[in-house]
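> Could you send the NADP-dependent oxidoreductase domain-containing protein prediction when you get a chance?

Sure thing. Input:
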Amino acid sequence: MVSIPDENNVTFQFLGRSGLKVSNLCLGTMTFGESSWGLPGQSDEDLSHQILNRYAEWGGNFLDTADVYGLGKSETIVGKWLQTQPRDKFVIATKCGFNMGKQEDINNVGLSRRRITESIDLSLQRLHTDFVDLYQTHIFDDGTPLEETLRTLDDLVRVGKIRYIGLSNVTGWQVQKLVDTTQRLGLNSVVSLQQQYNLLTRESEFEAFQVCKNEGLGLLPWSPLKWGILTGKLTRGVTPTEGRAGFTPKAFPFMSDLTDRAFDIVDTVKDIAKKHGRSVPQVAIRWLLQKDVVTSVIVGARTLQQLDDNMAAANGWSLTKEEMQRLDDVSAPKLLYPYDMVFTTNENRRNPTTSNFYVKSTL
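Output:
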C-alpha cells in the first residue's frame, strides 16, 4: 500500500463539550461480517482487519459499531482486532436499541433498563474490553420512559462500563427532551448525536442540529455518500440493480433518493471534484467536514481502495467558501411551514452570539 503523507493524516477534535478527542473521520464497521439485513458487499474477518489496520495507518482513532450489525458479528470482529492493539489508543463507540433477532424474547428490543444492561454486557464481551468510550441509543424508544433510559445510562457511566453517552436517529424535539431530562435529573450529559447527514439528506438541519449547536453536542454524520448515490457511479434515468444503491430502495425505501435533484447535486459535486483533482466521494465528505456542527464523519469501506479514497478527504485540502455555498444551494432542502416562516423572518435577525446556522429556503 502507498504510504500516507503526514499532512494528509486525520485531525482531531473534541467530541461535543466532552474532553474526549476523536479523529475527524470515524471508521464505521457495519460492513464487517455477514449483514443481518442481507446487505451486499460485506467484508469477512480477514479483510475487515486489513481495513482496520489501514485506518490506523491514517491516524484514525475512532471506531463505530452496534450490537445489531450482523447480530453481534461486527462487534466480534472489532473485538478480535482490538486484542492485538493498545486499547487506550482507540475510541470505541457502539449502540443498542434495535431487535437482536431473538423472537422468543419480547424484551429484546428498545431502551428499557433490562435491555440496556443486557446489551452492554454482551457488547463488552464481544469487543473484549472493560468499557466502551461512547454508548449510543440507536433509535428513540416510545415504549420506555426517558427517565428509565437516561438513569440506566448514567448508572453505566458511574460503574465504569461506558464513558460517554450519545444519541442516534432522533427528531429535534426528542434530542431537546433527552438533553433537558438529563439536566433536570442531574445526570451525565449527552455528548453526541449520530444522524444520517449528507448532501441529499439535510432535513435534520431544521431542528436536530440546531439543538446540537445550542447544547454542545458533537455531530457524527452517517451515510455521507447516501448508500452510494454520492459516489458519482450511477447514471441518471437508470435504476441500479447491483450493490447497495440497488439493494437499498427495496430494503429501505425511506432511504432511497434517486431523483433528478440527486443527480443535479452529483453533477455539481463532479464539477468541483474535477477542479480539485479529487474524487466525487472526497468532495461529498469534505463538505460535511467543513460544517462547524460536525465533529467526525463516519465512513465505511468494503475495500482498502475505498477506504483510502474516503480517508483522503480528511486533511491537506479544502473547499472554497464559494464551493461550499454552491453545494449548499444545489442541495438546499425544501422548507415547509413553519420552517419557511421562521427562517425567513429571522434571516435579518441573526445575532452572532446566539444564532445557529441558517437554512436557506428553496421556495
